[in-house]
Amino acid sequence: MSVPLTENYREILHYLEAETARGLFGHDAGKTNHTGLRKRIYASGDTIADMDGQKRVVMLVVSGWVSNGKELEDGTRTVIDFSLTGDIITVGSTEWAREEVRALSAVTVFELPGAIYENLSTYPRHVREFILKGMARRYARVAEHFVNISRRGAFERVANLLLELSFRVGGHQEDGANSFACPLTQIDLSDALGLSVVHVNRVLRKLREGGYVTFRGGVVAFQNRPGLIEATGFDSSYLALAKPVHT
Questions:
Q1: Helix 186-193 to helix 197-209 angle, to the nearest 10 degrees?
Q2: Shared domain check, 84 and 176
Q3: Region label for 26, one of left (φ > 0), alpha (ψ between -120 and 50) or beta (otherwise)
Q4: CB under 8 Å to 10, separation ≥6 — which residues?
Q5: Structural domain of residue 231, as residue ranges?
Q6: Do the domain assignments include residue 246?
Q7: Bridge-partner residues for 112, per DSSP?
Q8: Do residues 138 and 72 share a domain?
Q9: What CATH code is carried by the domain that includes residue 191?
Q10: What interhelical angle do 197-209 and 154-169 show, nearest 10?
């Protein structure tokens, strides 16, 4: 079972498509700082935003895979989160929490210019709510990733990340396996999980030999996803916002 895209993603996408043709938010564009809304396409490997903090935008990922991370002084890199279709990325929201945003595949995004704290209140309500929900989802993922690398063993770390991605992107059945295309390399997994590439490779082999999942040629294929969920105690509830309770 996959986690569906945010409820009004298609509505927001259609709205932004229309607004790029006439200036964001129509006749009210001149009253705001949003006239620079644009659709951007990045090639795999492109740096969308670096850590100098100069670029300030709110991005909606239309398609593709994006990594959000930090490059350390010794040249190593830590991936904080992977952003996929329908996800929100805020760049330059603070001077001290700068991230490098990199395209891991061909990526299309809508970029709403300006830092989130400067412009959020001036967006139409449905856009504002969509962004806030996207930020909440990202916070939930990042919190889970922190637990993953700080408290779980290598087997559970790799399995939990692959399971998370499978729930987020969905998949299709083929030859009895549930699979999805995944552009991540073992280096990307290493950077996201705090493990060496050698260790990641060892765990992937263990997952394959255990009959749980394979990762070959850019495709993740689960032979026994229910069994892997049970073996690792994976709980996908953090991937979906709770429905509001009306009293």
A1: 100
A2: no
A3: left
A4: none
A5: 153-239
A6: no
A7: 58
A8: yes
A9: 2.60.120.10
A10: 70
Q: What is the pLDDT of residue 29?
A: 44
Tokens 């779980």 belong to: 152
Q: How far apart are CA 188 and CA 104, in angstroms?
A: 9
Q: How far is CA 30 from the centre of its chain?
A: 32
Q: What are the structure tokens assigned to 17, written together? A: 């498509």
Kindly report, residue by residue over 38-78, the tens digit of the pLDDT: 899 999 999 999 877 678 889 999 999 999 999 888 888 99
**Cβ neighbours of 4 (radius 10 Å):** 10
User: What backbone torsions phi and psi does residue 81 show, to the nearest 5 degrees?
Assistant: -160, 155
Q: Among residues 99, 117, 148, which one ends one of the domains?
A: 148
* Phi then psi dihedrals of residue 245, to 5 deg: -100, 120
Question: Structure pTM?
Answer: 0.87
**Pick from 116, 233, 215: nearest CA to 162:** 215
Q: For residue 58, give every residue at least 6 positions away whose Cβ sits within 8 Å of its Cβ, in sequence order, or none.
A: 88, 89, 90, 91, 111, 112, 114, 116, 119, 131
Cα gap 187→196, rounded to integer Å: 8
Domain's final residue, options 94, 115, 148: 148
Planar angle of CA 5, 80, 92, nearest 5 degrees: 85
Cβ count near 121 (within 10 Å)? 7
